[in-house]
Each structure stands twice: as structure tokens, then as C-alpha cells.
Design goal:
8 strands, TIM Barrel, hydrolase, Hydrolase TatD, single chain, TatD-like, globular, TatD/YcfH-like, 258 residues, DNase_TatD-rel_CS
């Protein structure tokens, strides 16, 4: 029973066949999905998915690329939505220094505000970090994010950065890149992450794993990530599925699976 801890099934790339994509995920052994709503457009559609499918949950937050568009009432809206039973985290939030869409100071402010909201509500956070390893860790420390913890989504940093995140009470999640033949660093980091802090994801429709690289990613492909993780860890696919699903249950406070 696999858990995809980060996907975007409400993305426009799935408009033509969303139901079929979800059915294929179930056929591939995916029993639970955390879908991500990250701005004014995607949060309502992510909530709608949770109301349609009993095995889909959501995180809601404001993506750093869209930080410049966030208003004070948006933060109030996110707080309201967090009262819903199937909203299990605040995210994805963080810093993105690759895309020049929101100034760094605005990203920092919005990131801090959402960490503070998570601490107020006692909810875990889902971190987006692109080319901003030092600042992400620094802000997490300054805002005492270790009080709620969370997950470093699609981790791409070094083992040194991963250790700092583990010390801050975060889980480390891996997606499609860990299946790439030339992905030396993600494989080395995954090998060292403790089993009880390991998560897997797809980030579909992005970051498609091998052998489908270059095509649209799907939630069902989390099985390929699990297979790669099992090989790196030297355990069975069933063991990786069980452990990462147990970790997701613990982090997101999901109902136990039968």
C-alpha cells in the first residue's frame, strides 16, 4: 500500500483523463494521496478532490513563486481551511531562487508568516526548496519550525543539508529524480536517510521517473520511486511501501490503514 505524499492531480495536465489517472494509481498499489494546493487557483480544486475521493488528502499553502500575489486575507483563508478534517499540512511553502517571479524579501516574509501559522495551529509543513538550501534551513531555525516539523519535498540537497533538516524534525522525501541513472547525489542521500524519516512522492505531473522521463508524470509512478528506494536501501518493495506509508501516517496524522 503506497502513499504518494506530494502530487498535483488538480493540474490542468490531467483535465482530460483525471479519473483514469487516479484509477491507474490504485491499480499500481497507491492507497493514499496527498494533493497540494498552493495558490488562489489550486487550493479550491485540491479541496474538491478530497471531497470526491476518500483516499485523497490535501496540504494548502502559498508557493514561493506566487508569494508576491499573497494578501493578508489569503493567510486567513488558509487558516480557515486548516480546520477541515482532510487538510493535513500547510504547504507547499518555502523559497525558490530559480524562478525570478517573487522578490526574495517577499518570499521570506510569506514563508515566515506560514511557518508561524503552522506553529499556531500545530500542523506540519511541506517545504519547497529550489536553489535556496542555506536560507530555507536558516528561516526554519529562526521560526522554530522544529516545533511542528514536516517534509522536505523532492529533496535535492546534500547529505549535510539533509542532516540539518532531520535535526529540525523534518522527513526527507524523494521523487522521480532518484530513478535517474546520473542522479548520484539523491541516491547517496536516500541511502543515508533513516528509514523512519523517509517518504516518497511523484510531484506529478512534473519530475517523471525513468523509464517515462520526458512524458507527463502520474501518481501511479510512485511505485517506480519505491522500487528505486528499495534497491538503494537493500530491502523489498513491500517493506519500503509499508515503512513510507507508516511514516506518512505519523507525519500527517492520517487514519491508520487496514
Amino acid at each position: 500500500m503506497l502513499t504518494d505524499t506530494h502530487t498535483h492531480l488538480n493540474a490542468r495536465q490531467f483535465d482530460a483523463d483525471r479519473g483514469e489517472v487516479i484509477e491507474r494509481a490504485l491499480q499500481n498499489g497507491v492507497s493514499r494521496i496527498i494533493n497540494i494546493g498552493f495558490n488562489r487557483e489550486t487550493i479550491p480544486t485540491s479541496i474538491e478532490l478530497t471531497e470526491t475521493y476518500d483516499f485523497i488528502y490535501t496540504a494548502v499553502g502559498w508557493h514561493p513563486q506566487d508569494a508576491i500575489d499573497m494578501r493578508a486575507d489569503d493567510l486567513d483563508w488558509i487558516e480557515e481551511l486548516c480546520a477541515k478534517e482532510k487538510v493535513v499540512a500547510i504547504g507547499e511553502i518555502g523559497l525558490d531562487y530559480y524562478w525570478d517571479t517573487s522578490p526574495k524579501d517577499v518570499q521570506h516574509r510569506v514563508f515566515r508568516e506560514q511557518i508561524r501559522l503552522a506553529r499556531k495551529l500545530g500542523m506540519p509543513i511541506v517545504i519547497h526548496n529550489r536553489d535556496a538550501h542555506h536560507d530555507v534551513v536558516q528561516l526554519l531555525k529562526e521560526e522554530k519550525a522544529d516545533e511542528v516539523g514536516g517534509v522536505m519535498h523532492c529533496f535535492s540537497g546534500s547529505w549535510e543539508t539533509a542532516k540539518m533538516c532531520l535535526d529540525l524534525n523534518f522527513y526527507i522525501s524523494f521523487g522521480g529524480p532518484v530513478t535517474f541513472k546520473n542522479a548520484k547525489q539523491p541516491k547517496e542521500v536516500l541511502a543515508q536517510v533513516p528509514m523512519d524519516r523517509l517518504l516518497i512522492e511523484t510531484d506529478a505531473p512534473y519530475l517523471t521517473p525513468h523509464p517515462h522521463r520526458g512524458k507527463r508524470n502520474e501518481t501511479g509512478y510512485v511505485r517506480l520511486v519505491a522500487e528505486a528506494a528499495a534497491e538503494i536501501k537493500g530491502v523489498s518493495l513491500e517493506e519500503i511501501a509499508r515503512i513510507t506509508s507508516d511514516n506518512a501516517t505519523r507525519l500527517f496524522r492520517l487514519p491508520p490503514q487496514s
